[in-house]
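User: Hey, quick favor. My workstation is busy. Could you predict this chain's structure for me?
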Amino acid sequence: MITKFIILGIYFIILFLIGIFASRKVKGLSDYYLGGKNVGYWAAAFSARATGESGWLLLGLTGMGAIAGVSAYWVVLGEVLGVALSWFFMAKPFKRLSDKYNAITIPDYLEGRFQPKTNLLRSIAATALSVFVVIYVSAQIDTTGKAFESLIGINYYTGALIGFVIVVAYIFIGGFLAAVWSDFFQGLMMFFGLLLLPLIAWFSIENGSEFISGLREIDPNLLNIWGTSADPWINVFTLLGFAMIGLGFLGSPQIYVRFMAIKNEQEINRGRWVAVIFTVLTDAAAVTIGLLGRYLFTEVGQDAEAVLGIGGENVLIVVVENVLPVALIGVYIAIVLSAIMSTIDSLLIVASSAITRDFYQKIFRPELTDDRLAKISKWVTLGMALFALGLSFTVAVLSPDRTIFWFVIFGWSGIAATFCPVIILSLFWKNYSEKGAIASMITGFLSVPIFKFGFQSLANIGVYFEKLDVLAPSFLLAMIAGWIFTKLYPSKAETKPIDPQ
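Assistant: No problem, here it is.
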């Protein structure tokens, strides 16, 4: 136990040092929110991937591999496609336009793109960001508490508070640069940790040739790429839900601010390969860890969740504790926390920018200087973090059987359904109008809770919506709403076509 705490202590010290060093480069609002738009491709790519994956990659996706079997690789396919489309086709035109509009935030970009005469578009965007980002941050704090409780035996609430204090401290002083540099460091830990663990677990198997036959004996459905249910339609909706998770990479603000912050388009050309390779290897490794854990630690007829936790979310922890020496267990605890904290820091910066710049400065106090606003931003970041902490504790009390996957995906889907359709249409449809953008955001924003708490509770068909989850249908409805309202309320002045190359 002492070894674990020493390793964690070193890890936390490194994060604090990153925050202190980054704080020296924060001179104004652009530095605090975008690092002065001078981020290199390695840092941007690793930061975007670490932020996009979060703790659900290490705990949620590994658990899906353990429970769903090889069909969980559909998540890998969906995420790889989403990341590739984002970096290869959307990043450069988005970077070009955000620079043209001198945008610091996503609402800045939208206002530059549509040139609205009122603050309605900015207000809706900032409100949606604030709501779903707080939900997403609270999910990550919840994951932190679970990780400390499972890995070290610390009380859930104490663990969540420890993680909360650490991440808030380094972004409070260092802003976006602290988030990016810490994400790069933490992304490296996630990358190598996920790649090495399945190799170590594989060599712990006495007879590797029995792996496939062993999984088949435990449950033949684990080897069915088309799903584990006897109902073919359940499988169709489940696999669609898995693959459609990748839609969230096509415009989510916490990822796209990295494209705003990167130095230039040449850095995007380099960074896209880093991002895609990172996604392929880490996602595939996560599912494989789940499969190995299911083979090594469960038996025929045994309830897998009784051994590996609800949704299999403890499978990585079980594998780590049983196949690694004590010193490396401490490292993997830090890796799990890295995955969680790398998302919390980015989300808090995005949420803070929505409140501070997009509400306070742009709507109510336009005379405020950026230097003054940068100082206010720190306290807004702290306030939103505290609100998210309270929400996570509330959910923990009211829903003790929640899974990491559900909580994280709900927040992720809310952000994605609200902003991804708007970003896609604004980049590639020259006639997309302000009214269309507003309709897209409102539809995406409202559809997520409607599908989650409405359609999924319907008799007979609710189970299909539950398997599909909320992102795909909400995303589709937001795209349709944008098209309809643009046709009904076209822009008076058309925007010139945007070259996506």
